[in-house]
Each structure stands twice: as C-alpha cells, then as structure tokens.
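Suppose you are handed only these lines of text.
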Amino acid sequence: MQQINKPYEGLFITVEGGEGSGKTSICEQLSLTLNARGYEVILTREPGGSPLSEVLRDILLNPEKQYSIGERAELLLFLAARAQHIEEQILPALRHGKVVICDRYNDSSIAYQGCARHLGKSYVEQLCHLATEDLAEPNCTLFLDLDPTIGMERVKNLRGDQFDRLEQEKLQFHQEVRQGYLHLADEHHDRIEVIDASLSLEEVVGSCLKALEPHLTLKPVHE
Ligand code: T5A
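From them, the structure of the protein bound to T5A can be written out as follows.
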C-alpha cells in the first residue's frame, strides 16, 4: 500500500490522559480559544466522531455486561472506530486546512490495550499503523498527566458511581495506563508534551496553549 506523507495542510492536535485528567474540558477550552484566534476548528473524540464509531463507542464503554469483550476484540473495536473516524472526519478536515483537536487517538490504544491490558506495545503500534495507514500523524499531542487516584475522584464527583466499562477497572490498571503514557512521552518527546493536569483548569489551559504555540503556523481563516 502506498504511504502518503502528510497529504494535508491542516493541524492535527491530540489530547491524551487517564480517566478524569480533564481532556474533555481542555479540548473545549482549546477549541474556543483557537476559534477566537481565527482558526477553523473541528473538535472530535475517540472512540467516536463518526456515526459508526459512535455505535462502537456505545458497545465498548457500556458498563452493562450483556456480553463480554475479550482483550483482542476490544483493541480491534477501538481500531475499527478509528479507521472509520479518520476516513470520514479527520482526514477531510485536515485536507481542508482545518485544526483538528481529537480527544484521544493511537496513544490511548498503546497505553490502555498495549500496556495496561498487556497486549504489548509494539503489537498495538503495528495494528494502529494498519488501522490508520499512517495517513494522519498528530503534529502535537498534549498528555494530561495526573495521579489516577485524583482522576477517578474527579470522575466520581462528576458522575457518582456511574462508571463506564473501562473506568470500572482497578486502580492498578489505571496506574499502568499512566506508566504507558509516560514511556510514550519519553520515546516521542518531540511530539508529546507532558502537561501537569493536577493544576487548576485555567493553569492547565495556559500550559497547553504554550505547548501549542510553536505549531500554530497555519494562517487563520478570519482575523
Ligand atoms: N480507550 C479509548 C481505550 O482503552 N483505547 C482507545 O484506543 C481509546 C481511544 C474513553 C475510554 O476508552 C478508553 C479510554 C477511556 O477509558 P471517555 O468517556 O472518552 O472514555 O472517557 P475519558 O476520555 O477518560 O473522559 P472522562 O470523562 O473520564 O474524563 P476527562 O475527559 O479526562 O475529564 P473531564 O474534562 O470530563 O473532567 C472530569 C471532571 O474533572 C473536572 C471537570 O470539571 C469534570 O468535573 N476537572 C478538573 N477539576 C479540577 N482541576 C482541573 N484541572 C480539572 N479539569 C477537569
């Protein structure tokens, strides 16, 4: 298969982190700020972001155990959701020169399925390449680093005991997710910015904008 190197003009930003690390809040704030600065921004999420991918999201996150999902099936479902998302949403937006902010992407699969589920980092990386054909590689990834105890406490304060299927995993699982991310950040320090997510939301937004500044070389659509 022909590999195309960055066949688009847009800017691809991904936001990563454990449960309750503040990704959704940060993605919304960044979208508002960049929009106000004249960029055309698409805010999207994984799993999800396209009609099929949202159906797969429901299957993957549903805490009611009407069916079991094995570890490999879980990985492949996340990747199927991503393959459709990239084709239908991410790539067209990047080709139109837009800024795409995506709440989770390949690094989530590597940290959760590769590291915390122990499927193996390089095995998951290879399957991520297969699913995305390397068509869109993030220009910058913001990893919101937070102690999982604090993250789960935030989720609990927000939603009570209504945890989704992955949030129901033990603390050890979430600690392994964090370690997985930290290894990735070490390995890809040119792409992944580690952001201290224990600070106030305002401060975290500030750190994220500072990290993004060097990448904001696109010409704003409106001044
Ligand atoms: N997954 C996903 C995989 O296993 N493999 C994959 O390949 C992919 C793509 C997705 C799940 O799927 C897994 C990972 C996840 O388990 P999701 O619903 O998208 O599930 O869940 P999360 O992405 O984890 O989102 P959460 O809702 O759990 O948390 P967020 O988005 O990180 O946090 P947010 O912004 O909703 O904030 C949570 C609470 O904290 C507060 C907010 O106001 C909110 O109440 N908050 C702060 N409080 C204090 N200080 C701050 N700095 C705060 N920032 C936010």
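What can we learn from it? Residues 17, 19-25, 45-47, 61, 78, 104, 108-109, 112-113, 154-155, 158, 164, 166, 197, 200-201, 204 surround T5A (CB under 6 Å). Helices lie at 23-36, 51-61, 71-95, 106-116, 121-132, 148-159, 171-187, 201-212.
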